[in-house]
């Protein structure tokens, strides 16, 4: 049995649906931009009436929403949420489903090491994340070119897009680690939503309180689109921390999976 092919086919339909949804949300947001930019002065006056804490929470205090990159940076928070939910769900499901569907006993009595099971599973779901990102990259450039109101910084735009992959990689790794020791997980969706929205709330607190320590507690803080827009780069400490933590999650998940007891059917 080719585990990689099986897992890839298992999640193919789901990936298609989520990717189409992500691109649809992207075009929905970007289609509003021409109307918004044409009334930028009026919109900025309206925003001035909002409390500073509200503007900080949603990353609207230090960026110009009248430019493609500034507006895209604001909208990207919701793109990251959708992509993050998909990645976390994949990470949790690809391991836990064997126990939930009572197929782990069958799979692991085959002449295969546990490493030869978990590694192809990870590669299959990682490939789905990569495919989603490639399609989204292309779609975002097309959308920007269609709806732009002038020249924009392509480097900054692409860095914002690239942050989607890093956020998804972090949540995929975390999901796989959690699933290795949660033997009674009946449904992955409640935990997925709880974790991802929990990270989102932490990011709102981070932006409101302007506390750098909180930014390290959430992947949305590691790749803050407002920071990327203002600096045309990632925050190096946050990037290194995020990748190191993602790799740690994968290593821990690998170790736990290889050592845990698999209940018999």
UniProtKB/TrEMBL annotation:
A cellular component term from Gene Ontology for this protein is: plasma membrane
- Membrane spanning stretches: 16-36, 69-92, 122-144, 156-176, 188-205, 239-257
Report if keyword Ligase is assigned.
Answer: no
User: Please, which domain of life does this record's source organism belong to?
Assistant: Bacteria
User: GO molecular function of the protein, one example?
Assistant: ABC-type transporter activity
Alphabetically sorted, this entry's keywords are: Membrane, Transmembrane, Transmembrane helix
Protein name according to UniProt: ABC transporter permease subunit
């Amino acid at each position: 049995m080719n585990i990689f092919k099986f897992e890839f086919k298992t999640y193919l339909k789901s990936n298609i649906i989520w990717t189409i949804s992500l691109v649809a949300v992207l075009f929905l947001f970007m289609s509003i931009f021409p109307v918004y930019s044409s009334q930028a002065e009026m919109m900025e006056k309206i925003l001035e009436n909002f409390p500073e804490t509200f503007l900080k929470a949603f990353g609207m205090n230090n960026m110009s929403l009248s430019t493609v990159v500034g507006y895209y940076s604001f909208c990207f928070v919701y793109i990251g949420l959708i992509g993050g939910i998909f990645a976390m769900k994949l990470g949790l499901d690809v391991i836990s489903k064997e126990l939930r569907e009572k197929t782990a006993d069958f799979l692991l009595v085959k002449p295969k090491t546990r490493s030869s099971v978990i590694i192809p599973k990870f590669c299959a779901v990682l490939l789905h994340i990569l495919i989603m990102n490639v399609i989204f990259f292309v779609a975002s450039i097309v959308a920007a070119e269609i709806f732009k109101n002038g020249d924009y910084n392509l480097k900054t735009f692409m860095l914002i897009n690239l942050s989607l992959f890093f956020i998804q990689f972090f949540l995929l790794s975390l999901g796989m680690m959690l699933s290795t020791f949660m033997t009674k997980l009946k449904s992955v969706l409640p935990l997925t939503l709880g974790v991802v929205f929990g990270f989102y709330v932490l990011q709102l607190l981070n932006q409101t309180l302007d506390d750098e320590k909180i930014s390290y507690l959430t992947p949305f803080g590691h790749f803050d689109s407002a920071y990327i827009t203002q600096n045309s780069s990632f925050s190096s400490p946050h990037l290194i921390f995020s990748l190191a933590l993602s790799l740690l999650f994968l290593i821990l998940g690998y170790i736990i999976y290889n050592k845990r007891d698999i209940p018999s059917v």
